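Attaching the record inline, Q. Sequence:
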Amino acid sequence: MIQFILAQATTGDENAWMSQLLLFGGIILVFYFFMIRPQQKKQKDQKKFIAEIKKGDSVVTIGGLHGKVYQVEEDKIILEVDKGTKLIFEKSAVSLEQSKKLQEK
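Structure, as predicted:
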């Protein structure tokens, strides 16, 4: 009996592995186009935005602080958050431009 079951298991459809390979390939493509690729595009846009920050831009930090860029240094920016109140942040702490955030709402 066991020999009969094992014999049937080994003589299965020869194209079954091909259909499984196509299924897994399809799943990988779906993950790439719906998850990985948009994330890479978002990171690229964020990097470009950080490189193009200039004095006078209104920005929002990753902590939610809203301010206007007072001065841009090599890897830091100085934000003016209130009249005369200036804070120093790393460029990587800037999340997005405030005008873009208002457009999304």
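The mean pLDDT is 83. The helical segments are 2-10, 16-51, 98-104.

More tomorrow.
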